[in-house]
Predict the 3D structure of the following.
Amino acid sequence: MSAARPHFSHALPSAGRRRAWGVIAGLALVGVLAQVWALAAGELDIPAREVLGALFGGGQGMGADVVRELRLPRAVAVYACGGLLAMAGALMQVLLRNPLADPYVLGISGGAAVGALAAMLFGLAPLLVDGAAFGGALAAMLLVFGLAHGDGSWTQTRLLLTGVIVAAGCGAAVTLMLALAPDTRVQSMLFWLMGDASGATRPWPALAVMAVGLLAALPFARELNLLARGELAAQALGVQVRRLRYLLYVLASLLTAVAVTLVGSVGFVGLVVPHLVRFVVGNDQRLLLPAVMLAGGALLTLADTAARTVIAPMQLPVGVLTALIGVPVFLFLLARRQR
Amino acid sequence: MTRVAAPMLEADRLALQVGERWLCCEFSLTLKGGECLVLLGPNGAGKTTLLHTLAGLREPSVGSVLLGGLPYAAWRATEAARFRGLLAQQQPDHFSSTVLETVLVGRHPYLGRWGWEGPEDERIARAALADVGLADMAGRDILTLSGGERQRVAVAALLAQAPQLLLLDEPTNHLDLHYQIAVLDLIRGLADAGRGVVMVLHDINLAARYADQIILLDGRGGVRAGARDEVLQAALLSEAFGHPLRRHVLDGRVNFIPD
């Protein structure tokens, strides 16, 4: 972010655009390959041909059942979750005009965690835990919006501070619940907090939300480019800034809420993926948003598959693996930025 | 819509209030194509607030602003953006972007919702970069530029926007002497070619050199609006800026020098 990057050697926007479309196509392909690996790898090794048979050829047998009943929902869930979080992160970075923003910075995941852990504390069914997580996320979103918008000024500093404080409050509530919870429930609560895809059985709505979210954001993508360069300039160029910021806030929050409800608060995908993709395709949101979505999905699929195979038969929570990758990558980016 | 007959910008009995404080009492102005209006005044007098009001980005507390004969409410935002452009005082850059991409932002009002900048937009943007002496910098990352270069990129973005009316908040910010004159010559040239210019300047002598009209805010709510030589008087300026100034004529050019 500080020095000229290789991708800036081209000065022609059209050449950069062609390159970016190539990157997007490549990321889509990586996503497909990651899905195949996720379906094939595990305690039971299933050859790729059998995987395809299970998906498209109506294949029979234990391998096909494992693919269809266990691995497919999980693989789709992590793909959707990665895409949702990465896109939400990119949108939050524009909304707050802050490269260090991530989907959780405004307390959405904190609200979801409070809801989910409260439900788990009372031993509610998984479906109700999901409902409570989503409700908590929406409650946090409305609370932050209401507080930050209190006097109508709605500056991003105020929004950021309000979000950070609400997130901190949620963090305290989470710690309290962990302290009060009986030992038998603490482990599942911790897994939820770190992000755990093993329980995801209904991933398709999230995948649909991911696609709809992208389609909702793309018509405004050029306006987002302007907003990222400053509110005043954007307004003078004809952007309805206030309306755009509401849209951005609601969209980024909903994408985050859906992702967190499905898999828990997986860290770093929403922060690091937009930065990594920006290195390659530049910062035009029209190209960045689809690329970020595909990269997030592919990356989280790979991370989750690794998380359940590296120390098999034990499974790591996927959030641990993304943090292991994400922390050094992010510190590296930060160091380059300061130079 | 034909707006040929109407002045580019009119303000009728305009007054601005921020919080409890009145920045300027009621005054009126009319700006036609070919004219250059300079806003002068001490720090915090409300020059930027006035410029934003004239740009339609804030409602006047009292009075009205007409752009091309119509209130801003009657303009579609993108049409207004093709008619008037604003150079903001600061260029907040948080994300990497090439210089060319940054200038292409000025083409936004000419593109449809799904539109992409085409070869013609690129040609316009490159011409604008050449106008500010940055033709070779098109591929550079803006975060690597100096403040003055960054300011010239912003001027180029405004040129690419190609508005009839240019509103500029301290266009000489961060610029060295050479580029202060170069940029102001460029802007004056646009006015001479028929466009309208309103700009905030700090330097009284640059104002004396480029303005046709002056609005002088004294920071206590007082406003002097009029032709350049009516407003640029040592007594009025000394009072507004709170420092004694003396008028000198050097080689036919009026200069004000602080005592």
Q: What stands out?
A: The radius of gyration of chain B is 18 Å. The domain at 9-93+164-258 of chain B is CATH 3.40.50.300 (Rossmann fold). Chain B touches chain A through 45 residues (CB under 8 Å).
